[in-house]
Amino acid sequence: MFTGNMKKIILLLVICSPFILSTGCKKKTKQSEDSIYSRHLQRHVDLTILTTPLPEDKNALNLLLLNDGQELAQLRVKEIVDSLYAKKLIQPLVVVAIKVDDRMQEYGVADLPDYEGRGSSAAKYAAFIDDELYPFIKKKTGVRKFNSITLQGCSLGALSAFDIAWDHADKIDKVGVFSGSFWWRDKTDTAPGYTDDKDRIMLNKIRSSRKKPHLKYWFYAGGNEEKGDRDKDGIIDVIDDTKDLLAIIKSKNVCPPEDIVYTELKEGTHDYTYWSQVFPSFLIWAVGK
User: Fold this and answer.
1) N or C: which terminus of the chain carries fewer CB neighbours within 10 A?
2) pTM for this one?
3) CB neighbour class for 50 (10 Å; exposed up to 12, middle 13-18, buried from 19)
4) What backbone phi and psi angles, to 5 degrees, belong to 178?
5) Is 242 exposed, middle or buried (0-12, 13-18, 19+ CB in 10 A)?
6) Domains (range + CATH), the chain
7) Phi then psi for 145, rounded to 5 degrees?
8) How far apart are CA 63 and CA 150, in angstroms?
C-alpha cells in the first residue's frame, strides 16, 4: 500500500506527465473573465484578466491595462506574456484587458469630441479607469500599491490611452501608444482654414497644457499603415502626427529624453499582425527585469 506522501507524488506525476519533458510542470499565466458595473458609463464592462505566478510580496506586481480588450487574442498577449515570463525577461504582471462597447464614442480626447462628435464619452471612460477600475483591480488582487501601472492601446485605443495617461499620471506610470490616431481633429482636413498646427485636437491639448506629468512613453508607427499625406512631404500622416506629438512633448521638458521610446517599422501595416510583433519589445520596456 502507498503512504499518503507516495500518493501525492504519484498524483503529481500523473498530472504533470504530458508536460514534464518540455515544461517541468511550471506554472503559467492564468486567465479569467470578470465584469464591473460602471456608473460613469452606465453599463457593465467585461474584463479579461491575465496573471503571471504571484510573487511573495504582492506589491511587486505590475499592472498593465489594455484598451480594446476584446482583441486580446489578436494581440497574442497571453502567448507573449507566457513566453517572456518563462524566459525571466519580465517581472510579475497582472494584465487587465478592457472590452469596449462603442469605441468611436468611448475612445478619444476627454471633453473634446472631434468634428463629427466622436469621442463624446471619452471623459466618462477616463473616469471609469480612474475612479472605478483601478480600485476594483486593487481589491481583486489584494495589492495595496502596484509596482508600476501601464496603459496601452492601438489606433483609436492608443489615442485614448495617451489622453488618459496624460491626465491621470498620479496613478499611471507608463503609456504604450501603437499607431495612435493623432489625426483626431476638430474640423475635416478639407475644410476652409484647416491647418495641422491648429486643428489636431490632441496636439493642441498637449501644447497648451500646463501639466508636467511624470510619465514614460513608448510609441510605435508603421511605414505602410496608410496612403494619407496631408502636407505632401512624402511621409504618411500616422508617422508625421506621431513625430509632431513627440516634438511637442520633448519641447515641454516633462521627462528625460530616455523616457521616450519611438519604434518604427518601414513595412508595418495598421493591424494586429504588426502590433503583435512589437508587443514583446513594448512589454520588456514596460515591465522588463
Assistant:
1) N
2) 0.90
3) buried
4) -100, 110
5) buried
6) 27-287 (3.40.50.1820)
7) -150, 120
8) 6
* Type of residue numbered 28: K
**How far is it, in rounded angstroms, from Cα 86 to Cα 66?**
21
Evaluate the CA torsion angle 270, 158, 210, 285 in order and state its sign: negative
Question: Which H helix or E strand runs over 95?
Answer: strand 93-98
In terms of C-beta density within 10 A (0-12 exposed, 13-18 middle, 19 or more buried), how is residue 197 classed? exposed
Q: Kindly give the pairing relationship between strand 30-38 and strand 43-51.
A: antiparallel
Contact 126, 164 (CB under 8 A): yes
Query: Phi then psi for 206, rounded to 5 degrees?
Result: -70, -40
For every residue of 176-244, DSSP letters joined together read: EEES--TT-BSS-TTSTT--HHHHBHHHHHHHH-------EEEEEEETTS----TT-SSS-HHHHHHHH
Positive or negative torsion for Cα 13, 16, 21, 23? negative
Place of cell 488618459: 164
Cell of 130: 480612474
DSSP 251-286: HTT-S-GGGEEEEEETT--SSHHHHHHHHHHHHHHH
The tens place of each residue's pLDDT in the chain, 289 residues long, gives: 434 444 443 344 333 333 333 333 457 899 999 999 999 999 999 999 999 999 999 999 999 999 999 999 999 999 999 999 999 999 999 999 999 999 999 999 999 999 999 999 999 999 999 999 999 999 999 999 999 999 999 999 999 999 999 999 999 999 999 999 999 999 999 999 999 999 999 999 999 999 999 999 999 999 999 999 999 999 999 999 999 999 999 999 999 999 999 999 999 999 999 999 999 999 999 999 9
